[in-house]
Write a structure and sequence with these properties.
163 residues; alpha/beta; 7 helices; 35% helix
Length: 163
């Protein structure tokens, strides 16, 4: 099955219009529209055929599609109740995709994922720190965590102590 690229401004607008969606400020949503950014995230995650990946907040499936096409088996956790219907359509035909409609902070990740999995996400600003701390504190059998965060969050994370 041939899948059109979701990582495109026109495609994203079409999907949002078709499903009568807007990015939720309350959920800190933003949708990727640049396929080169998606590819950079997939490359940074060093995805190989059959890699098990936990994606946090797949949104409309933009990054998810890149991961799936690189050969990953993606388990995505999405909080927004409107998005499962969208993902069912945008990721139709991908057999290596599983969606969990839940809050990532409440999910028992260790029961959901096999050992040696990767985490890949475009994280919302308001919950980035909480998600990253949860992932690190649980001491999960994660081989790699690759996240896209807002510039301000990245600057804070890489700042010198007491600055």
């Amino acid at each position: 099955m041939l899948h059109p690229k979701i990582a495109d401004l026109a495609a994203t607008r079409h999907i949002l219009k078709t499903f009568d969606l807007r990015a939720s400020k309350r959920l800190g949503q933003n949708f990727l529209i640049d396929s080169s950014v998606v590819q950079k995230i997939v490359d940074a995650a060093e995805i190989s055929e059959g890699d098990e990946v936990l994606e946090i907040g797949p949104g409309i499936g933009t990054l998810t599609q890149g991961l799936l096409e690189a050969g990953a088996k993606v388990t995505a956790v999405e909080l927004d109740k409107k998005l499962p219907a969208v993902l069912e359509k945008t990721l139709e035909g991908y057999e290596n995709f599983k969606l969990i409609q839940d809050d990532i902070l409440k999910v028992e990740i260790e029961e959901l994922m096999p050992p040696n999995f990767k985490v890949v996400a475009n994280l919302p600003y308001y919950i980035t720190t909480q998600i990253l701390l949860t992932l690190l504190e649980k001491k999960l059998p994660v081989t790699k965590i690759v996240t896209m965060v807002q510039k301000e969050v990245a600057e804070r994370m890489t700042a010198a102590p007491n600055s």
